[in-house]
Amino acid sequence: MDNELSALNTIFTEFYYWVTVVLMLLIHVGFCMYEVGVSRYKNHLRTLMKNTILIPLVTVTFFFFGWWIYGAFPNGPYIFEGAGLILQTGDGFGANQLALPWDPIMAVNMQDHIRMVFWAAFLLFSWTAASIVSGSVIERIRTSSFGILAIAMGSVFWVIDASWGWHYNGWMVKMLGYHDAYASGVIHAVAGGFALGVLVVLGPRIGKFASDGTPRNIGPRNPWLVSF
């Protein structure tokens, strides 16, 4: 009986998370609606393209090394004694060697449904982190430059913080008792801080200030899209 209940619990848990992962895709529909709504007409297509290309870019890079970073660096730069870099202990790969992103131990196991759920959810979080930056640099950045920033944010920086604050053996969890409610720190604070640094470098949108320094209001072109 216990085994049957455990199996049902696992099935419904998987089902619930797969449904929520699919619903998370709507987050990026919202990002696209917001960015197109606040950008000027001449930049609509480029704004939409910028938010769209981050999905394939971050997906590929997260598959190759973003997921590995999460499992490899929970203790940061050896801040506390514990499992840091994932060390292989046999399995034909040699003892006490760093598991590289392409090693089988770090592969996305299609047969492990729970692990696949987490991989898919983390991938969507990676898109979200990059999209937060995208929403901040509207009409301020080249598409190619944004692609580099999207990879850096979506597949490196936020994943390091997730490894510290979400991983069961993360040093922030172990040493500080850190609890990240609603991804407030791991995603939103990190992406917001990253975006702020980028904006300091880029400056305001072209046309925001007159030649004498007087600020101009750049209102939304479609308030309905922004509201939704």
Descriptive overview:
- Helices cover 63% and strands 3% of the residues.
- By secondary structure, the chain is mainly alpha-helical.
- It has one domain (49-218).
- A hairpin with a 5-residue loop joins strand 1 and strand 2.
- Helix 1 (2-38) runs antiparallel to helix 2 (44-72).
- It is globular, with a radius of gyration of 21 Å.
Average pLDDT level: 83
Helix-strand pattern, N to C?
HHEEHHHHH
Biggest β-sheet: strands ordered side by side in the sheet: 1-2
Tell me the helix content: 55-70%
Q: Gist?
A:
The chain has 228 residues and is mainly α.
Helix and strand layout, with pairings?
Blueprint: H1 2-38, H2 44-72, E1 87-89, E2 95-98, H3 113-136, H4 143-165, H5 171-176, H6 184-202, H7 223-227
Antiparallel strand pairs: 1-2
What key attributes describe this structure?
single chain; 2 strands; 7 helices; mainly alpha; 228 residues; 3% strand; two-stranded antiparallel ribbon; 63% helix
